[in-house]
């Protein structure tokens, strides 16, 4: 090994996207391997608006594995983090013993430093673990020279992270095997397939109380909800087929109705959990009413909502309806006038909402119920960042000052 | 017929109770006959606190059937009202033709005047149709000299009315026949069986919006919720057995847990309905949290909640816990200080809530979230009121002035 590379870490930086499920994942059949009780399907959001950036450096001079998340050092011994590190290293060893020359024998024994940041505030309440673990696994794989199917490893960090390993429309096939080898993500269509599709993240400002975390929430649901069992076994398989067909056909109304029904059914199984779990608050319920009244007014399904384990609404609609719908949201959730930008992300043209439409919706406005909207669309999967200036770790292997 | 009785109406007054289901009825398999998709079980509440009083007068001088509800004349042609009138008259004719001397041949051809009032405000949001139709059918039966099984007729007025035909603990057996002849209520245990059981109706003051009515709500649920179908077919039969056993054994913790789970599952199926139906509001959800935190603090299930098609909570508990639990409710839902009585009904002794318990519950108080509490218990079925001064109709067959 040349003298000058001895102490300079091998550094790789990648980005990975958030994904929002339209057929929901809720409940594990294996807690350790993170194997789900049903398949799920999501849309990968564009990284221009929402992404995680992760730098991994490896060096023989590092004494131990370390991790910094959003500027703060965290415990590297978190079991799921350890699962990902262990599985990537195992895969690298296997590839080397299989004779793959791209796996660097020395790197394998090196410790790593990991640094990860999100380009969106944690306060936004967006599940960042999917993007985070996808980015971690994708970056580690490049450091250790591992290629190929990685969603099975990302899955072991956070179930839904496996879907963030691909762009566009992605299904997570639940699989049947006990070892989880067939529980993998697969791209249904790329992000270029349906360019008219738009996504609006409505960030809800009222936190009525800290909700139950999804890990413990889904455990309790699996243990206590008989409706969840029925959903997983008898409802989701048919919905997966219909949803894949709707995506292939770009059939918005089927896509939208299934999305809303599946979100509602997921929250129904939370309510059937004992003690019950509530993720929707009064703003969420108002958004649901608004969407149904809006669609009813037009006599067609133009807009769909979906909610994960929190009160934020994610809206799917088509480009042609974005401007008016955002104006409707602004009317019924008047934003703080002295606050920052209400609409972030993709530009939205101004629009006028007719009195007739306002009256048809007929809800009592909830001032400041929504703090801001992120306007985005489907996007690509994880990417390598080639520019070394973008590394989050310096040549000393520690986070750069400005993170 | 003696001259002096020619124009004097035959007048009968009865009272009937409200009932609150612990295994919920939601969904009909026959809209006309009101046949449910599952059996249900309820507790009949004591009429000292909540009752309907109905006077029926019949006279050959009446030109047509008429009805007054809570002081206002209503349309007698309401289909469900017509069902009850038709079925009672049919039963009377059948009995007369079978040779029953108690059926007065002349009364059968007479028109009736009906007058009905509740001793609780409609604004309380308590489903009054069960008590109302039970009382109507019970009173009509006495006017026409009909005896025996009447719950099948009350059922055709309002499904849950059949359960108000008996006191104590009552099941409505769904039946299997297409003609509904086996879809009847049956007493499981009389009101004297479990004297320690207490009922608190928490009347919620915040009406976020007018909820979907139960008739159309359950129609939509039957049409759109796959979870409801599963519940009716595969969950409720087992729960009915467990609940009947818990009532027989006076096993409060089983009774209470099943009650809460079944309420939650009913509301889960409402959320799985498309478009979704919400009956629980933020006060309801706060009561749910409070009950679970309260029980958790004591390490046993001392209190249970149940919610019908509205935000009001009905609490089941044992006499020994009433005073403290009410004090807890008053602490977390501070009542209006200048308002009327906060606790109505059965007297409740004062109690002190420990700081420890308040901290264990740890919720943010919601001032004026609950307007008042009705304290009551299980009670008897419909009764005839013998005192003619209590008749709601005067000797002219019209409502008395003071109703």
Protein traits:
homodimer; 403 residues; alpha+beta; Ribosomal Protein S5, domain 2; Alpha-Beta Plaits; 2 domains; six-stranded mixed beta sheet; five-stranded mixed beta sheet; 9 helices; 22% strand; disordered N terminus; steroid metabolism (chains A, B); steroid biosynthesis (chains A, B); EC 4.1.1.33 (chains A, B); ATP binding (chains A, B); Diphosphomevalonate decarboxylase (chains A, B)
Tell me about this structure:
- The structure is a homodimer of 403-residue chains.
- With 403 residues, chain A is an alpha+beta fold.
- Chain A has two domains: 3-194 and 382-390, Ribosomal Protein S5, domain 2, CATH 3.30.230.10; 197-376, 2-Layer Sandwich (Alpha-Beta Plaits), CATH 3.30.70.
- Helices cover 33% and strands 22% of the residues of chain A.
- Chain A contains nine helices and 17 strands.
- Chain A has helices spanning 79-97, 129-143, 151-157, 214-224, 226-249, 252-271, 282-298, 319-332, 355-361, and strands spanning 10-17, 19-23, 28-30, 35-36, 40-44, 51-59, 66-69, 72-74, 111-118, 169-173, 184-189, 197-204, 303-306, 313-318, 343-345, 370-376, 383-385.
- In chain A, the strands form four sheets. In chain A, strands 8-7-9-6-1-17 form a six-stranded mixed β-sheet, covered by helices on one side. Chain A has a five-stranded mixed β-sheet with strand order 13-14-12-16-15. A four-stranded antiparallel β-sheet of chain A has the order 2-5-10-11, with helices on both faces.
- In chain A, helix 1 packs parallel to helix 2 (129-143) and helix 5 packs antiparallel against helix 6.
- The longest helix of chain A is centred in the middle third of the chain and has 24 residues, at 226-249.
- In chain A, 50% of the residues are buried.
- Mean pLDDT of chain A is 93; it is low at 1-5.
- Chains A, B: It catalyses: (R)-5-diphosphomevalonate + ATP = isopentenyl diphosphate + ADP + phosphate + CO2.
- Chains A, B: Keywords: ATP-binding, Cholesterol biosynthesis, Cholesterol metabolism, Lipid biosynthesis, Lipid metabolism, Lyase, Nucleotide-binding, Steroid biosynthesis, Steroid metabolism, Sterol biosynthesis, Sterol metabolism.
- Chains A, B: Residues 381-403 are annotated as: Disordered.
- Chains A, B: One of its GO terms (molecular function) is diphosphomevalonate decarboxylase activity.
- Chains A, B: Belongs to the diphosphomevalonate decarboxylase family.
């Amino acid at each position: 090994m040349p003298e000058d590379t001895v102490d300079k870490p091998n550094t790789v930086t990648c980005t990975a996207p958030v994904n929002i499920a339209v057929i929901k994942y809720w409940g594990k059949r294996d807690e350790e391997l993170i194997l789900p009780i049903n398949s799920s399907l999501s849309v990968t959001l564009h990284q221009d608006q929402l992404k995680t950036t992760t730098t991994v450096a490896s060096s023989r001079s590092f004494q131990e594995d370390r991790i910094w998340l959003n500027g703060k050092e965290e415990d590297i011994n978190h079991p799921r983090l350890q699962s990902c590190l262990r599985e990537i290293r195992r895969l690298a060893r296997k590839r080397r013993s299989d004779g793959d020359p791209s796996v660097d024998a020395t790197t394998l024994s090196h410790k790593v430093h990991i640094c990860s940041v999100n380009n969106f505030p944690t306060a936004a309440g967006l599940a960042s673990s999917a993007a985070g673990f996808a980015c971690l696994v994708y970056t580690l794989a490049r450091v250790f020279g591992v290629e190929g199917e990685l969603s099975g490893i990302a899955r072991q960090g956070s179930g839904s992270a496996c879907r963030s390993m691909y762009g566009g429309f992605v299904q997570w096939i639940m699989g049947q095997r006990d070892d989880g080898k067939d529980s993998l993500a697969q791209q249904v269509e790329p992000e270029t397939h349906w360019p008219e599709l738009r996504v609006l993240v409505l960030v809800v400002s009222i936190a009525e109380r800290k909700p139950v975390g999804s890990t413990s929430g889904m455990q309790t649901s699996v243990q206590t909800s008989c409706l969840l069992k029925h959903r997983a076994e008898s409802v989701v398989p048919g919905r997966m087929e219909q949803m894949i067909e709707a995506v292939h056909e770009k059939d918005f109304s089927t896509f939208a109705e299934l999305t809303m029904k599946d979100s509602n059914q997921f929250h129904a199984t939370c309510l059937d959990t004992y003690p019950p779990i509530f993720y929707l608050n009064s703003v969420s319920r108002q958004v649901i009413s608004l969407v149904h009244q809006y669609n009813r007014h037009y006599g067609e399904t133009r807009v769909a909502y979906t909610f994960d384990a929190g009160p934020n609404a994610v809206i799917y609609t088509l480009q042609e309806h974005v401007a008016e719908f955002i104006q409707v949201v602004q009317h019924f959730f008047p934003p703080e006038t002295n606050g920052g930008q209400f609409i972030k992300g993709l530009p939205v043209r101004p629009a006028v909402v007719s009195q007739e439409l306002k009256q048809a919706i007929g809800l009592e406005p909830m001032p400041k119920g929504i703090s801001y909207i992120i306007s985005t669309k489907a996007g690509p999967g994880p990417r390598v960042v080639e520019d070394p200036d973008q590394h989050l770790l310096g040549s000393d292997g520690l986070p750069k000052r400005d993170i």
